[in-house]
């Protein structure tokens, strides 16, 4: 039996980063009481009409620009008709032909280090459905429409993937780009970035596609990889036994690490797509496109190259890229203190862990980029030593304020005055004759004891380098 | 003062502004008239007596306001316009107990203009029909002869205006639903250009064809009503930004030299002798007055009924999908599962014509049939639109009958296919998105029922249409 090769394509649903829904002015916030962010439009009341959120159109176009798509000047919304209790109007408003963006793609590095270009088929705009909550005890299904009408883009790839590793690599990269562009907030746990996987097997080296299955609603990169691995084995097993693969929709169960059939093609809907008559075409004018291009920020690849060039370590670069708005913070701080390594170190060691603990972005912290830069500056000009700076940080993070003033108030301004340090050192040596003798007898590690004492005496403000020099000089004399 | 209800809308508005009569008197008199005539006519599904009296009282306390041109004027609204806190049924069992949470834009605008809504009028269920015979709550009757239909689907509004219950009202027109009942009841009715009036809050039948419009006893009354509600609406992306003219300030247009295009396909259709005489007499009179009657052809007109019913039913089938028994409206008792919840709720509460159109529309959009039906119809629609626009390049207006038959007896309702064919004169105007004015030109030869004629104007040519309507009104005296 020849080796079987998987052929995989993705459909990624991303929630757009807008304050209001796609067709009404209800808030897109999550986590509130059920049915509190609804109106006659998003709850499908008779007579209500949709109106397109221009911001959502801009974000979709922006995603298209970043992914090398052709952004259509004119696209249309269509109704996708089916019945479900979480779908208030009895149809989803989506795009069929033409969508807002077509073509494009993204280059990834595969497991062997080779470069692969994954082609996109299209990106289209659509609204999300609500949510059904099944109350088993009371035998009821409750409907929450807060999410109904939330703007999404669906990104559809060509079947260009040949392994789960490629898929995970692609998803990570795509996620980073969309978050960087602020097209989406990309919170995976909120389902803001979720994907459907289409997968089939065929004998390696052949062209004809096998029967595919669709695995729905994977909201983590890891689950996507695991589901694909499982499917490759399951479908491979069917081929080995000479049994047919049935075209169907499957769900991945992370607890049991397997996929299960949800519905087969026979039960598939006829969506009866047709142009949505309540909405005029979606128009992206050349002027708008030009503005979006001009506003386009650096993409993650480009940022990464720049940060490395600025002297950051690979590890620091990855952390800054990984955290939301960290690069933005870094760039702002750099405008005040042009010491990339120092700024990055302060962020990676102090700021970002604290932000992660409080679940905020660095841009939302009480210590603005200017403040962090000021702290770095105090270190750079020897006003603060490292320890004092690190000790001041928690308070600056909690309350904000000017680092220089706080340092002054706490009396931790670094003492770089050789005379003052010499005076303190002489006192300490006089008070500890035994240790002084040990040092002179060759036990050089006793020096750290004297440094410690001196730092304590100076409340940590002594310039450590100077303290070292003075102590060595005095002890050896 | 007595018999205020007989005043035309313009007369009433003037007397109200001049404080000759109070809003309470005017509204009270119309409510009394409604009470007296309803047993015979059944034009209304909900009479808003209490609300209307309270609103009139509040208006009287503040006094007339020239900025509110409809101050104190009672109006009737087809029960398809959502009224916050007041039951809105679409004449369907599905919405028998449905109360909207918001006002339609037309309602908001009417209130801003000082009008008082006194009644929600009868219609064919969800505006699907041409006689009010498909109302789930029983048909309305033609005030000229209560054995006869008032037409539809805005038949309740037409009957209300013709029975002097209200001086004016609003209907909606998807394929003739304002113009045909206006004609059968002897009123004036306008189907405005698509997009002239916001559809927000009007329960949708066919989104790309539906258009609200005024009905009254005089042309100028319709102009006043249109002026009050026309214009853009941030909540309706299909409402036009086209400027709103002073429709109520237009003067009669000279008939001499008026170029009237007469589509042969419509005038040579099989027109009932009851109407044929009065219509031909009207043409002769116009010609005598110097109008230039130009026979023209609309090549694609023969496809318009098929095109219309495919598109309207397709859109309608999915507009009806929200009536699923989940969030509001009728829900079947104790369904076994979700499918039964849907099927039983909809089967129990939607009437035969609505069900028929949902089925037709669903079929036309189905996989494998879409290209042959919906897509082809959408293409033909453009051709028909082009035909009408082209015809209006050389003519000031098109002049056509409204129907080929006068108001018929309740006992003689048509089979669906015949009924659809009867929309031939009006529905192409919706396909073209143009304005059409329906006004009376005489009465039937034997039975004496009103006979109407239709003037079709250019895109957003409502002012010219009213102007021509005023001169027609001078030649053909109002019947009411």
Compact overview of the structure:
With 477 residues, chain A is an alpha+beta fold. Chain A has 3 domains: 4-286, no CATH class; 298-410, no CATH class; 418-476, Arc Repressor Mutant, subunit A (Orthogonal Bundle). Chain A contains 15 helices and 17 strands.
Write up what this structure looks like.
- The complex is a heterodimer of chains A (477) and B (480).
- By secondary structure, chain A is α+β, with helices and mostly antiparallel strands.
- Chain A folds into three domains: 283 residues, no CATH class; 113 residues, no CATH class; 59 residues, Arc Repressor Mutant, subunit A (Orthogonal Bundle), CATH 1.10.10.
- Chain A has 15 helices and 17 strands.
- In chain A, the strands form four sheets. In chain A, strands 1, 2, 6, 7, 8, 11, 12, 13, 14 and 15 form a ten-stranded mixed beta sheet that branches. In chain A, strands 5-4-16 form a three-stranded antiparallel beta sheet, with no helix packed on it.
- The relative contact order of chain A is 0.10.
- Chain B has a single domain, classed as Amidase signature (AS) enzymes (Alpha-Beta Complex), CATH 3.90.1300.10.
- In chain B, a hairpin with a 6-residue loop joins strand 10 and strand 11.
- At the A-B interface, strand 16 of A face helix 10 of B.
The overall average pLDDT of chain B, rounded, is: 97
Profile the largest sheet of chain A.
10 strands, mixed
Q: How much helicity do the residues of chain A have?
A: 25-40%
Number of helices of chain A: 15
The number of domains of chain B is: 1
What is the CATH topology assignment of chain B? Amidase signature (AS) enzymes
How far apart the termini of chain A lie comes to: 85 Å
